[in-house]
Specification:
single chain; about 250 residues; alpha+beta; four-stranded antiparallel β-sheet; 6 helices; about 25% helix; DNA-binding
DNA sequence: AGCATTGTTTCACA
DNA sequence: TTGTGAAACAATGC
């Protein structure tokens, strides 16, 4: 379920595991832990403690004490962070850390598209969608010929917006997802930025992006909460996109 | 059985 | 060279 709101929730979970001594690491999943060989992450972390948990967009990273490495984490399409829970069945805990005293931290991910890596590189990741100001947002988002929906999903432009948050944001702003990003007026970009902030804030507060007003009606027999009309869908920016043809002309 | 999926990266093409 | 779009990746659920 991970978009920015879920990633922020995961970051808060990791904060529960700070300042505990790491005694073991399960990094045997060579796909989730690529390009590291099994045992590499374990060797770098055992004996250390996590000291701070950070997030930019959907990307998470944790600092360790002393001159220890940073641990990067990504939830992929279906991941979550579990603290002090029993191991999941079917080896769904793709990466885990065991602490002195018996606690643990796990990256639980049925789909296995999540990621754990040492010294993550975020040089290609844009500013966080929850932090960026109106000016920076307009400069970065309001350019190019791609549909605005695709522009919002580009993590190098602004980080943290996923398929559902993009649809919710465009609906709140009353903008058609296929509108070319570079053709939008300053007023429309301002409205889009405000919509992004409110949609993100609501999703974090209510527990996830699926709680969005429009996202909850984002299906074939749904109803637009504003006009009562029927949402429509198409493939835009490589993703299934839903919008209200009446409210988003 | 077949298709879609709340994500990211890589590759082909204009 | 830059930007855009599609495919690949893994595994599950409808």
């Amino acid at each position: 379920m991970p978009e920015l709101p879920e990633a922020e929730r995961a970051r808060q979970q990791i904060e529960r595991a700070l300042e505990r001594e790491i005694v073991a690491v399960d990094d045997r999943d060579g796909y989730v832990c690529r390009p590291h060989a099994p045992g590499e992450i374990e060797a770098a972390l055992v004996g250390r403690r996590f000291t701070r948990a950070h997030r930019r967009g959907k990307f998470l990273w944790v600092e360790t004490d002393g001159d220890g490495p940073e641990l990067g984490l990504h939830l992929g399409m279906a991941g979550s962070i579990r603290i002090d829970e029993e191991p999941a069945p079917n080896a769904w805990d793709r990466f885990s850390v065991e602490f002195a005293g018996g606690g643990r931290m796990a990256l639980r991910d049925k789909r296995r598209l999540g990621r754990a890596v040492l010294e993550p590189d975020f040089s290609h990741v844009g500013p966080d969608a929850a932090e960026i100001g109106a000016k920076g947002f307009a400069e970065r988002v309001g350019r190019g010929t791609a549909p605005i929906k695709a522009r919002l999903l580009d993590q190098g432009v602004v980080a943290g917006i996923g398929n559902l948050l993009a649809d919710e944001t465009l609906w709140r702003a009353g903008l058609h997802p296929r509108r070319p990003a570079g053709d939008m007026s300053v007023e429309q970009l301002r409205a889009l930025h405000r919509a992004l902030r409110s949609a993100t804030r609501d999703a974090i507060r209510l527990g996830g992006v699926h709680t969005g007003d429009f996202v909850a009606e984002r299906r074939r027999d749904g109803t637009c909460p504003r006009c009562g009309g029927a949402p429509t869908s198409a493939r835009i920016g490589g993703r299934t996109t839903w919008w209200c043809p009446n409210c988003q002309p």
